[in-house]
């Protein structure tokens, strides 16, 4: 009887965890979709320096330290919730951008005369790596918050920009992002 209770509790915990995780990523996805619609299609979310500054700000722990020292518990709670929401939104935007890049690449490679299978496999493996990194990052943000995850977010951003430019992968001189 005790074993059954432990198993049931574990299953219920896992189900709740998955439900909350899916809800938070769905909310971020819906916000991203609304933003893309309001900006007229939202094809490319990359804004150069602004995007890099957002990455550093969202995944920084400096603001959290300030809020915890200067603010009350309610302000700190709101800050953590909003920072988590921003981080998940950033992840969803990057995922959307990676899917868009790969879609454009598929369309371009369908017309390419100089297609090289080794480069295509390399690109696909990098894309799979990126998808795993974004899922891991989203899970960690949901579990512990974005503070302290800047290194992983920056690594995922580097891989995304590497995929965006086929030349960076050793491919031809064409760019996928245009």
Number of helices: 6
Number of strands: 0
The helix/strand class is mainly alpha
Major sheet characteristics: none
Rg, Cα atoms, Å: 19 Å
Distance between the termini: 62 Å
Percentage of residues in strands: under 5%
Q: Which residues sit in consecutive blocks of at least 5 with pLDDT less than 50?
A: 39-46, 167-178
Q: Give the SSE order as H and E letters.
A: HHHHHH
Instruction: Give the rounded overall mean pLDDT.
Output: 78
Helix content: over 70%
Shape: flat
Number of self-contained structural domains: 1
Chain-wise SSE layout:
Elements: H1 2-38, H2 49-58, H3 62-70, H4 73-111, H5 117-144, H6 150-164
Helix pairs in contact: 1-4, 4-5, 4-6, 5-6
């Amino acid at each position: 009887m005790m074993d059954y209770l432990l198993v049931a509790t574990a299953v219920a915990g896992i189900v709740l965890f998955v439900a909350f995780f899916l809800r938070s990523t769905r909310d971020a996805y819906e916000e991203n979709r609304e933003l893309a619609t309001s900006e007229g299609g939202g094809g490319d979310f990359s804004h150069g320096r602004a995007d890099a500054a957002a990455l550093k700000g969202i995944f920084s722990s400096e603001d959290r330290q300030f809020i915890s020292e200067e603010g009350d518990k309610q302000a700190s709670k709101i800050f953590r919730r909003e920072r988590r929401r921003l981080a998940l939104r950033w992840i969803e935007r990057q995922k959307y951008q990676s899917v868009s890049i790969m879609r454009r690449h598929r369309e371009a490679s369908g017309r390419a005369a100089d297609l090289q299978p080794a480069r295509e496999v390399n690109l696909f493996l990098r894309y799979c790596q990126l998808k795993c990194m974004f899922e891991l990052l989203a899970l960690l943000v949901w579990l512990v918050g974005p503070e302290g995850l800047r290194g992983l977010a920056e690594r995922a951003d580097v891989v995304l920009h590497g995929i965006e430019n086929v030349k960076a992968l050793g491919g031809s001189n064409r760019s996928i992002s245009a």
